[in-house]
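Hello again, I could really use a second opinion on something today. I've been puzzling over a protein and I'd love to understand its fold better. I'm sending you its amino acid sequence along with the backbone structure tokens. It would help a lot if you went through both lines with me. I've dropped the whole record in just underneath, so have a look.
***
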Amino acid sequence: MMQEKESSLTPPDLSQTKEHGMQIVSIKGKLTYGTTQEAKVRLKNLFDNSADGYIIDMADVEYIDSTGFGLLINFAKQIASIDRKMALIVTNDFIYDLFKISKFHLVFPVVKTKEEGFKVLKEQIDLPLPLRDY
């Protein structure tokens, strides 16, 4: 029982690459209460303000709760302050449904692949709900 609790508090793994001028941050694990503070620090340390845009690859995210959504919103506000955009790769149907329920898909482009992410960031698509109104 104790081991299960500890594993639920394991911070997600974050890594980054840069392609086509875009920073791609891959997240693996859970973005939940108890893990997001460490993830926030790691994300801040990976942040490259010279990127043309940001893709958060959540293909390996197992679960996200409201604190995970808050982490993404705070990161989006940070990059908006330097006039950049963010796209999210979400391949898990359950997590995609959470994004729809929370209206996240109206604020950020939610795509299935990096290539789609590059395309929507280069096209500068305006979404129905501005970040400042979310």
